[in-house]
Amino acid sequence: MPTPATAVVAVDGPSGSGKSSVSRGVARALGLRYLDTGAMYRAITWAVLRDGVDTRDADAVAATARSVRLIWSTHPDESVIEVDGTDVSRAIREDAVTRSVSAVAAEPRTRAVLVELQRRAVAEARAAGQGIVVEGRDIGSVVLPDADLKVWLVADPAVRAARRASEDAAAGRIADPVEATPVVHVVAEELARRDAFDAGRAASPTTQAEDAVVVDATHLGLAEVIDTVVALVRNRTGS
User: Fold this and answer.
1) Class for domain 15-233, per CATH?
2) pTM > 0.90: yes or no
3) What does DSSP say about strands 213-216 and 70-72: parallel, antiparallel, or unpaired?
4) What is the per-residue pLDDT for 178?
5) What's the Cα-to-Cα distance from 78 to each of 24, 36, 72, 81, 94, rounded to whole Å?
6) Could you give the 3-state DSSP secondary structure of residue 152?
């Protein structure tokens, strides 16, 4: 029987729903490891672009995924990921990677490589007697179907767009005020485009696991969402 400190938690949901912030907060609260699977796909995308690979060339994309060496941190207070010894933690958030990551992530052999690495990270946490929060889009449905708790995190599209615009502004990725309607509108369109692409891909589409608990963050602050998920973990593990 898992405890809150050894639980494996899958957090899925669309872009901008707050998966990363919530997952990190839950991991901190319970002393768990944390794995950002989206950063892994972005890191492979960065390598594809570095090597001048056409993202439409499925064989070349898959070959890149198989050849690169990824190293990442599972500490919730760190956002470090390396590709072949190069720290790409900031570079993977740049526009070029964002525009290309859905195409790269849709390649089935690339997904197979990363799913194996993701499951290995969970196995390593378990072997160390520690739980882990894993966030992404197909964690509960594909990567960790036996997770102790599966959360499907959602929020209204307008709220998701405003939050993502705020994050981008804070990180210096956009210069316009986040309150400006055109900025939020553009972000909303991009989120909708990516949601549709990821939900429609043949390999591991973004899907809510049948046994996932839906948490709607539309009208909740970050701390409230974290508390909600922590309570779910404690309830699920009998603590």
Assistant:
1) alpha beta
2) no
3) unpaired
4) 47
5) 9, 11, 9, 9, 18
6) strand
The tokens for 207 are 């899907």
Neighbours of 10 (CB within 10 A): 29
**Length of the chain in terms of residues written:** 239
231 vs 238, residue with greater confidence: 231
C-beta neighbour count of 229 within 10 angstroms: 23
* Residues 174 and 233 sit within 8 Å (Cβ to Cβ): no
How do beta strands 132-136 and 86-87 pair?
A: unpaired
Residues 70, 40 contacting (CB under 8 angstroms): yes
Rounded CA separation 77/94 (Å): 21
Place of tokens 């929060």: 133
Reading the block at residue 68, the tokens are 């690169």
Residue pLDDT, tens place only, 97-125: 999 998 999 999 999 999 999 999 999 99
* 185-210 mean pLDDT: 66
Alpha helices in 91-148 (DSSP H): 95-105, 108-127
> What pLDDT shows up at residue 46?
98
Q: What is the mean pLDDT of residues 34-43?
A: 97
